[in-house]
Write a sequence for this structure.
């Protein structure tokens, strides 16, 4: 099982690649929309890339509840467990 | 007894392409007089800087004729040699007869087989596949295909998620016998389970008037059918499912990503083009069509318009391999590799 920090770091790489956000800005308490300026289309890309990277399924109805980086990391950890 | 069959040509190719762009340029500032949005929001969400909207005289027929004459001229083919005309459109409001018949007649392709198809934004690729098959089966020799739309007539001008997106134009191609295989195998299909993602709000018989702008101005959007779209699921489907279809089309034609010269997807949204490009892992040297920035989303017309722009600017050249893929309402999709004329 990857650690929370490892999931966060991998997710940060994805957010950086899709939306150009610096990796170090992608911290657990950050809101994708309000803090990182990630728009809805980029969020679709991030979710898709995360599904591929972590081998999990994130349905659309769940994805819209992932407001912060921490929400997404926690969801991925649960789904991968 | 056994019926005699006609022999087809060994290969078919696109011999000439032509487009028509309406005169009127509508910039984002004008769009923002209709919806609560901004130039920056529209650019970042779609890549669109301006689009073309047709004036009343720029009809489906008129734009088709203009595009077709350019395509015929560039192909070096006389209208009288055209024996089949296929028109893809979802915005010709006269349901019957097919507009293909009067286009054929006005061009001088007097007795050509002529019909319309409804395959939305995949229409140009559907028609390309049909033309290729008709020529190789012997059913046709020279086929004129046209993608033409006046999507502005079906645009809900108060919907801030689509009002900036849709536009008008025509693109035509002459397809005929060739010394080389100029059209790769089509990979196509549909997914009617997802029909509600992009569709007309209601059937035409619910509408009572024929002038969409005047009607919407006086009656609002309640009864005039417009296009509505669920943006995020469509974005996901177009970016990833369609990237897989595009990869299959490359594979079917035996073209490796590193051998591809040009990528000209349906100009749906710049963000979809970018996401598909990344998902396909195309080499950075591949020329990518980005006509949507100046033209908007013209459905069936977008691929030929985008290719024409690349050929005219010198970014793409005759003889290059070009991956085309159309996808849209239905949902329908079709992709193939072509050799540029």
């Amino acid at each position: 099982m990857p650690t929370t920090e490892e999931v966060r770091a991998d997710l940060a790489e994805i957010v950086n690649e899709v939306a150009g956000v610096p990796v170090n800005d992608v911290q657990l308490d950050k809101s994708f929309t309000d803090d990182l300026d990630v728009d809805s289309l980029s969020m679709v890309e991030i979710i898709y890339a995360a599904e591929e990277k972590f081998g999990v399924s994130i349905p659309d109805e769940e994805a819209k509840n992932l407001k912060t980086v921490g929400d997404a990391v926690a969801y991925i950890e649960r789904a991968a467990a | 007894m056994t019926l005699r069959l006609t022999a087809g040509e060994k290969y078919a190719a696109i011999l000439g392409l032509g487009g028509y762009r309406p005169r009127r340029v509508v910039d984002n500032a004008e769009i923002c007089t209709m919806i609560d949005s901004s130039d920056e929001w529209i650019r970042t969400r779609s890549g669109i800087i301006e689009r073309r909207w047709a004036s009343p005289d720029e009809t489906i027929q008129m734009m088709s004729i203009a595009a077709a004459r350019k395509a015929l001229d560039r192909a070096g083919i006389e209208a009288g040699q055209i024996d089949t005309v296929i028109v893809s459109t979802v915005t010709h409001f006269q349901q019957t007869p097919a507009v293909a018949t009067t286009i054929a007649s006005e061009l001088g392709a007097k007795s050509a087989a002529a019909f319309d198809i409804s395959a939305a934004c995949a229409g140009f690729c559907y028609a390309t596949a049909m033309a290729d098959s008709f020529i190789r089966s012997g059913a046709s020799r020279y086929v004129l295909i046209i993608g033409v739309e006046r999507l502005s007539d079906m645009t809900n001008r108060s919907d801030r998620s689509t009002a900036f997106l849709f536009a008008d134009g025509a693109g035509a191609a002459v397809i005929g016998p060739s010394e080389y295989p100029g059209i790769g195998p089509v990979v196509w299909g549909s997914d009617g389970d997802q029909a509600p993602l992009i569709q007309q709000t209601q059937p035409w018989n619910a509408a009572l008037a024929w002038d969409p702008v005047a009607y919407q101005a006086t009656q609002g959007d309640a009864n005039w059918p417009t296009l509505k779209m669920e943006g995020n699921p469509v974005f996901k489907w177009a970016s990833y499912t369609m990237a897989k279809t595009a990869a299959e089309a490359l594979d079917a034609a035996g073209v490796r990503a590193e051998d591809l010269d040009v990528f000209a997807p349906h100009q749906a949204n710049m963000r979809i083009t970018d996401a598909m490009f990344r998902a396909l892992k195309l080499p950075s040297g591949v020329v990518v069509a980005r006509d949507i920035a100046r033209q908007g989303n013209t459905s069936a017309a977008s691929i030929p318009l985008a290719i024409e722009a690349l050929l005219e600017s010198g970014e793409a050249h005759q003889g290059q391999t070009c991956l085309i893929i159309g996808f849209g309402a239905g949902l329908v999709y079709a992709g193939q590799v072509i050799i540029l004329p």
Residues 238 and 272 of chain B are 7 Å apart (CA to CA).
